[in-house]
Structures are given as C-alpha cells and as structure tokens.
Amino acid sequence: MTFRKVNIAILVLAIVIFLLVLHHNLLGLSDFLKRDVADSSPLGLQPIDFIPEAPQRLTDESNDQEIPVVITASNDRLGGVIAAMNSIYHNTKSNVVFHIVTLNDTVDHLRAWLSKTALRKVKYRILDFDPRILEGKVKVKSEEADSIKPLTFARFYLPMFVPHAEKAIYMDDDVIVQDDILELHNTPLKPGHAAAFADDCDSTSNKFAIRGAGNQYNYIGFLDYKKQTIRKLAMKASTCSFNPGIIVANLTEWKLQNITKQLEKWMTLNVVEDLYSRTLAGNIATPPLLIVFYKQHSNIDPLWNVRHLGSSTGKRYSPQFVKAAKLLHWNGHFKPWGRTASYADVWEKWYIPDPTGKFSLIRRHSEIYESK
Q1: DSSP letter string over 258-308?
Q2: pLDDT tens column, 66-104
Q3: Left if phi > 0, otherwise alpha if psi is -120 to 50, otherwise beta: which for 234?
Q4: What's phi and psi for 179, nearest 5 deg?
Q5: Closest CA to 154 of 138, 177, 176, 175
Q6: What is the pTM of this model?
Q7: 7 in helix, strand or coil?
Q8: Distances 166 to 125, 248, 299 between C-alpha atoms, Å
Q9: 8-state DSSP, 311
Q10: How many CA atoms lie within 13 A of 248 on its CB side?
Q11: Contact 91, 180 (CB under 8 A)
C-alpha cells in the first residue's frame, strides 16, 4: 500500500513538472508572437521601408538605445540627404534609425540610391508626407512660390513620424556631422521644454544679418511688430532668434503641450493677418516656432550647429574652426552641391555619387579642370 502511494506521488510530481515546463514554453511562444506582431506593425505614415541587421562593426561596444533622426528628402536636394546620412553613420556606434520624410515622386529614386551604395546597411524608414495637411495654413506670395516647399514644414509634425519615441533629432538636409550623433541626442532639455535649438546670438553666428533681409538674428527680423496680434504677445523684439535646422525634441513634452496644434494655429493666423516680417527672405517655417517656443526652449551646443556656410559669412571661418565643428550647416542660398558654397570640399568627402545618374554635383569648370 505504501509502495503504491509512493508511485502515485511520483506520477503526480512528474505531471506537475510537465505542466510547468509546458506553461513556460507557451509563455515564451506568446512573447515571441507579440514581438513579431509589434515589429511588423506600421510606424509613422508608412510601414517600415527597410531595417537590416546591425553590421558587425556596430555591434561591438554599441549603444542599444535607438536614436531617431528625422530628415526630409526632395529630389532636387537628394544628394544632401545622402551626405548627411553617410556622415552620421560613419561617426557613431549608436543605434541610429533614419526616418526619411519625402514625397511620392522621390521614393523610388531614394530607395535605389540607398540600396545600391554603401548605405544599404543603414537602418531607415521612408515616410510619405501629404502636402494636403498644409491646406489653409501657408500663405504663398507670387514672388516666393518657387522657394516654398511642403517638406519645409515636416518638422512641425515630428510625433507623426516617430510616434513611439520619447526623444528625436530633426535636421535639415544641408548638413554633415563630424562627431558622434549620440552627444547631440543627449542634449539636456530643461523640465517643461519640448525642444532645444541653437541660438542665433551664439559665438559662431554673433549678430549675423543677411544683406537686404533685416536683422535676422532677433525676433524683429522674422515677425511684423506693427501687427497688434504680435504686440499682444509681449515678446521683446530684440530677443535672440534660434535656428530650427537642427532640433532636439522631447516628443513626450511636445505631445503634452500640443506643439503641433499651436504651430498650426499661428500658420493659419498668418494666412489671415500676414504676421511675418516682410524681410523674411523665405524662412517662413521659423516665425511660428519662434512664437511657440518663446523663452520655452533649451539650448544646443553651438558647435552642433555651425551654420551660415551657405552665405558669405562661411568664407570667414578658418579651416581649424570648421574642422572643430561637430555639425556643419550650409543654410543660406549656396548649397555644397552647387557652385559657390564655402568648404564644399569638406561636404563632398561624405557625398556618395548617385548610381542612377539623376543627381550630379554642379561645379565650376575651373574646379573640374584643377581636379584633373
């Protein structure tokens, strides 16, 4: 009798152990399926376009934290996007994912350029920007029609492109990065601040004024202080402006404060009341940001946005200063893929020729002759 009880006890114990093992395996399978479903779900405005495995050189001592970088891509400036991505990719071991915001007519060209060059191993998502979202929000004067591009306003909609991220970087396409993008991503933001920018009165761009475009280093250069709506805001006209070509955004705070809705409000008001300065020189994305982030933004290290290389100011920078810069920005009329930009040779080191042949650099004949 005692022997039978022992056998029954052993049998019951074996069954319990089997059931525990089966339960553990089923939980593991459930977690795997959940991850698989989550990974295949759409992100932003389109599903994931392409995310390869991290190359071996990045797995050693790499940072697992994902760094979302949002950048816009238009066909006529696609070379800039390629150079910017290449410079970031080769100067970091961090887990960078590019969220490339573009229009439908650029997608195939961009995908071909990325897939047929050394950038094929880069992690990226291609997102389509619908210009209809701007209807009733942009006032385009006839003389500015050619300079106003829908993608200029993509930075207003950052949470749409990276909805699950807490923090993201936005950058213009006319930049190259010369240091680890992780440092820029780690820019500290003060409590309650949704974004950080580089001020226009910092040491690298002290009181810079675009000839014929007014005082574009302070608020009066961007907003019409003769308008009552602007005066009611009680913003000092002499307040230093900031450059929105590089943004480090706290997207959690951005959503809590409805920053996108606030920006759209001022865009719509400008259509009705013409609130922007008449000497704006086409920088129509800047005024709404200046209003919404008035004394409510953190600062980026000036070396992470060394700008004006696309204007005459860039010619005054020494080679030593340019080399020390962590991010070079060719804002202004002259782009590094064109004829007359300063330090275009520095930018060109990161440029990858277009395998489709659709995009080519514009260079002076003398430069071509000397290079031979």
Answers
A1: THHHHHHHHHHHHHHH--B-TT-TT-TTHHHHHHHTTT--EE--GGG-B--
A2: 999 999 999 999 999 999 999 999 999 999 999 999 999
A3: left
A4: -145, 180
A5: 138
A6: 0.81
A7: helix
A8: 17, 11, 18
A9: S
A10: 22
A11: yes
